[in-house]
Design brief:
The complex is a heterodimer of chains A (about 120) and B (about 240). Chain A is built from 6 helices and no strands. In chain A, about 55% of the residues lie in helices and about 0% in strands. Chain A has about 120 residues and is mainly alpha-helical. Chain A has one domain (about 35-120). Chain A has helices spanning about 1-20, 40-65, 70-80, 95-100, 105-110, 115-120. Chain B is an alpha+beta fold and about 240 residues long. In chain B, about 30% of the residues lie in helices and about 15% in strands. Chain B has 8 helices and 10 strands. In chain B, the strands form 4 sheets. A 4-stranded mixed sheet of chain B has the order 8-1-10-9. The longest helix of chain B has 20 residues, at about 5-20. The radius of gyration of chain B is 21 Å and the shape is globular. The model of chain B is unreliable at about 10-20 (pLDDT under 50). The chains are: A mainly alpha (about 120), B alpha+beta (about 240). The interface of A and B includes residues 65, 66, 76 and 110 of A.
Chain lengths: ~120, ~240
């Protein structure tokens, strides 16, 4: 019985490995070019970044609160690709994940997708 | 506390107060106006401008150029539909033939009609008197464009690119002069148009806190006779004009 269990587990691992190798499941490209600590933990950012942004947005637009921690410009400054200088594009930090999840990414219709430093021609 | 001791204390307090009032540049208002990036705006300040038309030069459009540069407004070659936050107007009295020129932008009314008519609450007045459009809730109906007696609002007709990080703007929304709100929140204490006018040597646009009696704009308003454009509408604009 024990042997059968071990065999089954082995087969399961093998099948999973094959499926991964075949690349049947497309994965989003998540390139972290500037390693370090984000403003919140990865789990919180994955699930709740839109809530943080929404909260920040109300404070900034309506009450003039300009803290950088949860601001969209803060995201862009850190996560813009070194190659394209943007969070958009096929490998872009924002766009690749949103395309994968099938969620519209409207922010950058109006907001700049490139960091301030680059726009101003200063240091990256 | 005995009577004498109390009198002594009051005397010291009065001397201390007199010291605060007499020391140059030390004013309680300044402390009220200073704000950290995390603090919300309050009604203790009211931002506004005085435009001295006697100093405004006919043919000069430095304020318009500076505004476009600061806020990332680009000329598409289609002036009928381009957004325009500030424009120069030339005035001529037909009887006396006196001519003068003045910039006109959002007048940042205390009772703004654009806010009254907005069906979504996107057009709003900030606590410090700046009238803005929240593009997140603007549906582009353009009621505010029709309601504004100063023609200060523009509609963005085309897709935009290369916006400035501090000035997000996009197609389908209404926009207008923000009184360089990003600069004010940064603590610059000035607008692009006022800076450009000063650089050009005219100094026709004076920006500042209307509530602070010591501010440059308040002092100048005390000296010069000024008026609101369309004062009959009683909108109490934050932008005042001298010599019109």
């Amino acid at each position: 019985m024990k042997a059968l269990g071990a065999l089954l587990a082995f087969v399961a691992v093998l099948v999973a490995g094959l499926a991964f190798a075949a690349g049947r499941t497309a994965k989003p490209v998540v390139l972290i070019e500037r390693p370090g600590v984000c403003v919140e933990s990865t789990a919180v950012m994955r699930r709740d970044h839109m809530k943080l942004l929404m909260h920040q947005r109300e404070g900034t637009v309506r009450a003039g609160i300009r803290t950088r921690t949860h601001s969209l410009t803060g995201c862009v400054d850190c996560h813009a690709s070194r190659k394209t200088g943007s969070v958009l594009g096929e490998q872009g930090f924002c766009q690749s994940c949103h395309a994968y999840a099938g969620v519209t990414l409207d922010c950058f219709e109006c907001h700049a997708s490139k960091p301030r430093a680059q726009a101003a021609g200063a240091k990256p | 506390m005995s009577g004498n001791a109390r009198r002594g204390f009051l005397g010291t307090a009065a001397a201390a107060l007199a010291g605060v009032a007499l020391a140059p540049g030390v004013r309680l208002v300044e402390f009220a106006g200073a704000r950290t990036p995390g603090e919300p705006v309050t009604g203790t300040v009211r931002w506004g401008m005085l435009i001295d038309t006697a100093r405004c030069a006919t043919g000069c459009s430095d304020c318009v150029t500076a505004c476009n540069r600061e806020n990332g407004l680009h000329d598409t070659g289609r002036p009928r539909t381009d957004a325009q936050w500030i424009r120069k107007i030339d005035l001529k009295d037909p009887r006396s033939a006196r001519q003068h020129s003045a910039p006109v932008m959002c007048q940042h009314c205390a009772n703004p009609p654009c806010v009254d008519v907005c069906p979504t609450g996107a057009s709003f007045k900030r606590a410090d008197g700046i009238v803005l459009v929240d593009r997140h809730t603007c549906i582009g109906c353009r009621y505010c464009v029709m309601a504004c007696p100063y023609k200060a609002r523009s509609f963005v007709h085309e897709n935009l690119s290369e916006q400035k990080p501090e000035v997000p703007r996009g197609k389908g929304c209404v926009e207008g002069c923000t009184l360089c709100v990003h600069k004010i929140d940064r603590g610059d204490g000035s607008t692009a148009c006022a800076d450009a006018c000063a650089t050009a040597g005219h100094g026709a646009i004076i920006f500042g806190d209307l509530n602070d009696p010591q501010s440059a704009v308040a002092k100048r308003l005390r000296e010069l006779p000024s008026r609101a454009l369309r004062a009959d509408l009683r909108l109490d604009p934050g932008v005042r004009y001298a010599g019109v």
